[in-house]
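Subgroup meeting minutes
Present: P.N., E.W., G.H.
Scribe: E.W.

1. P.N. recapped why we're keeping a running log of single-chain structure predictions: easier to compare across weeks, and new members can see raw inputs and outputs side by side.
2. G.H. added today's entry (96 aa).
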Amino acid sequence: MIGVIHVCDRRLDCELLGSGMIGVIHVCDRRLDCELLGSGMMGVIHVCDRRLDCELLGSGMMGVIHVCDRRLDCELLGSGMMEVIHVCDRRLDCEL
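Output recorded in log:
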């Protein structure tokens, strides 16, 4: 609704971890040991694999936190009006 882009590796077994009041959906690979890294005022949930060396890539006006594995070759996939930043590993087969 605010132009936010979300991605998931088609090869992953994805699980819905949360949705915000604006209908934002985030996924996590069920095989990962996931850790809640932050939630925004809109109830958005973000996770990171505890085994990864995570880096904060950006935060939006709504207090949203996004992370990326520093070891990955990350690519900016999209940003919404709320300055939300999303990344994807270029080595993955990513789906909008």
